[in-house]
């Protein structure tokens, strides 16, 4: 039985990946290592938690001794690393946590892999999951390719860029069998309601203002989370050693257009008269260092591995809105506790 470690498996993308791996590969034992920060939630994994090929481990990737002991104990066959501080606004408010988890945490995993895998280092797989934000911002045209120079602008993207460089360095220096993917914005169930889509659904539900940064003209390329985890599965198994793969939805939206679409669907599902929640739109001061546009050229993964998005945006977006409205208890649970304090701090002075 192969032992695969997934870090950050209680978060948004990680929990979808854990579901896929546990169900698709009964001959793998999936170990999910997660610190359970505000963004990690075991509720996301309820329906697979009793599976015999699944184990949850609570722990912090920043804790070097703990990580070394974990690797020594389990002799993992591979690792898919998603644990991270992931919200850009939080990184602007308090960057240090991003440096610890995203950079130091990644190096702890690299060292543990290198030290325990030794001569097997070229065979066992170290997969680092990253973001398109490392490439910086595009103008009106063009798309990021794997060779686009790194140009991060937020503490979040700078910390992810740093970790990408370190992962590549462990391949070039020590021969570690690494692979990296850089993906565009994900949407879908189980995303913490600090990110645009679930935040706005939750606010519409409670008739709260919808804080649009700047003029709402920034563009993001949206991919349904299930398509992202299918790409991760493919890259983990078939991606070439030392390579980077861009993953994207080929689905660009200007924020304000996406928000109007979101309002239309949410109002319809809540059986409110058409356009009711448009009045909640509130333009607030812009995010500092706000990247104008992201777009991904995903031809490499398409040509090499045959991956392309399978979920149409209309369908995925409606499913997503419906999921949050049908799972109000989940929303309530994750927005209790420190969420109110976070919200006050983040939005009161905008
Ligand atoms: P998330 O914030 O929802 O989940 C992160 C998970 O990591 C949480 O479960 C959290 O508890 C855990 N974690 C945080 N610090 C930890 C630590 N020190 N030790 C152990 N666990 C820790 O994030 P997400 O949106 O699911 O993103 C997952 C990965 O994918 C990240 O690496 C992110 O950079 C990358 N990514 C995200 C997107 C996106 O649109 N969300 C797009 C591209 C890439
Ligand atoms: O309240 C808001 N108002 C607003 O206008 C929020 C939270 C966001 N926005 C804008 C900022 C962005 O242009 O919406 C866009 C999307 O914002 P986020 O959901 O915060 O995502 P983004 O900053 O694009 O980053 C996301 O995609 C790449 C993830 O959070 C990252 O983890 C991932 O790497």
Task: Characterize the structure shown.
This protein is α/β, with parallel strands linked by helices. It has a domain at 2-188 and 225-250 and 290-311: Rossmann fold. Helices cover 42% and strands 17% of the residues. The protein is built from twelve helices and twelve strands. It has helices spanning 12-24, 64-74, 88-93, 96-117, 155-174, 196-205, 225-238, 255-269, 299-305, 313-326, 328-334, 339-347; strands at 2-7, 28-34, 54-58, 78-81, 125-131, 178-183, 185-187, 210-213, 219-224, 244-247, 252-254, 281-284. The strands form three sheets. A seven-stranded parallel beta sheet has the order 3-2-1-4-5-6-10, with helices on both faces. A three-stranded mixed beta sheet has the order 7-9-11. Helix 8 (255-269) crosses helix 10 (313-326). It is globular, with a radius of gyration of 20 Å. The model has no long low-confidence stretch (mean pLDDT 97). The structure holds nicotinamide-adenine-dinucleotide (NAD) and thymidine-5'-diphospho-beta-D-xylose.
């Amino acid at each position: 039985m192969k032992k695969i470690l997934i870090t950050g498996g209680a978060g948004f993308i990680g929990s979808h990946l854990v579901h896929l791996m546990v169900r698709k590969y009964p001959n793998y034992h999936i170990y999910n290592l997660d610190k359970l920060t505000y963004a990690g939630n075991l509720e996301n994994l309820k329906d697979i938690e009793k599976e015999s090929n699944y184990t949850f481990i609570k722990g912090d990737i920043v804790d070097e001794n703990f990580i070394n002991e974990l690797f020594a104990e389990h002799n993992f066959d591979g690792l898919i690393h998603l644990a991270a501080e992931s919200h850009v606004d939080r990184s602007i408010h308090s960057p240090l946590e991003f440096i610890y988890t995203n950079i130091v945490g990644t190096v702890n995993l690299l060292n543990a892999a290198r030290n325990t895998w030794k001569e097997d280092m070229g065979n066992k797989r170290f997969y680092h999951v990253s973001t398109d934000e490392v490439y910086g911002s595009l103008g009106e045209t063009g798309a990021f390719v794997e060779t686009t120079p790194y140009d991060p602008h937020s503490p979040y993207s700078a910390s992810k860029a740093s970790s990408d460089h370190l992962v590549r360095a462990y391949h070039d220096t020590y021969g570690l069998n690494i692979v990296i993917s850089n993906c565009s914005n994900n949407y879908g169930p189980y995303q913490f309601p600090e990110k645009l889509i679930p935040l706005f659904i939750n606010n519409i539900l409670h008739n709260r203002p919808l804080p649009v940064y700047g003029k709402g003209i920034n563009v993001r390329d949206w991919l349904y989370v299930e398509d992202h985890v299918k790409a991760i599965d493919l890259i983990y198994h078939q991606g070439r050693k030392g390579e980077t793969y861009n993953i994207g939805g080929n689905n660009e939206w200007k924020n304000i257009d996406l928000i109007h679409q979101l309002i239309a669907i949410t109002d319809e599902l809540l059986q409110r008269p058409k356009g009711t929640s448009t009045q909640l739109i509130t333009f607030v001061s812009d995010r500092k260092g706000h990247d104008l546009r992201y777009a991904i050229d995903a031809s490499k993964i398409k040509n090499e591995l045959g991956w392309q998005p399978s979920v149409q945006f209309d369908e995925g977006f409606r499913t997503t809105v419906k999921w949050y409205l049908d799972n109000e208890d989940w929303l309530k649970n994750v927005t209790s506790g420190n969420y109110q304090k976070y919200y006050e701090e983040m939005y009161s002075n905008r």
